[in-house]
Amino acid sequence: MSHTEALKAKLGLDVFKPGGEPHIRIRPGMEKDPRLLQTIRLCPAGLYSTAQTGDVVLTIDGCLECGTCRFVCGDEVLEWRYPEGGTGVQFRFG
Q1: Any idea where the domains of the chain sit in the sequence?
Q2: Among 64, 65, 60, 57, which Cα is nearest to 81's?
Q3: CA–CA separation, 93 vs 18, rounded Å?
Q4: CA distance 46 to 43
Q5: I need a surface site. Which of 1, 36, 37, 87 has the fewest CB within 10 A?
Q6: 69: exposed, middle or buried (C-beta count within 10 Å: 0-12, 13-18, 19+)?
Q7: Per-residue pLDDT tens digits for 1-25
Q8: Helices (DSSP H) in the chain: which residue ranges?
Q9: What is the rounded radius of gyration, in angstroms, for the C-alpha atoms of the chain?
Q10: What 3-state class would DSSP assign to 49?
């Protein structure tokens, strides 16, 4: 098993518990910002994708809360905060 396959197997054990409000949001009007296009490639959980309109869309379920998107986009593009206690990712490396 390669290093990448082993990592994906371990991440597959994680549990994501949804909460009330999403902890990450793309700010209105920023859906085409070039920084968001970088998150498609860089997000380790693969939460960002491109819609047919060219807008970047975000799916929260499975977020690893690593902050990569926050670092790349900054506060101008994303609203980012940690999930409420008891929600979000629970790492289970076995």
Answers
A1: 3-90
A2: 65
A3: 20
A4: 5
A5: 1
A6: buried
A7: 775 666 566 666 666 666 677 788 9
A8: 3-11, 34-42, 68-73
A9: 14
A10: strand
Show Cβ contacts of residue 1 under 8 Å, excluding neighbours closer than 6 positions. 9
Q: Is residue 18 a contact partner of residue 62, using CB atoms and an 8 Å limit?
A: no
Q: What is the secondary structure of 76-92 as a DSSP string?
A: TTEEE-PPPTT-EEE--
Please tell me the distance from the alpha carbon of residue 49 to that of residue 38, in angstroms, as a whole number. Answer: 10
Residue 8, phi then psi, degrees to nearest 5: -65, -35
23-81 residue pLDDT tens: 889 999 999 999 999 999 999 888 899 999 989 999 887 788 888 999 999 999 999 88
Residue range 3-90 in CATH 3.30.70.20: yes
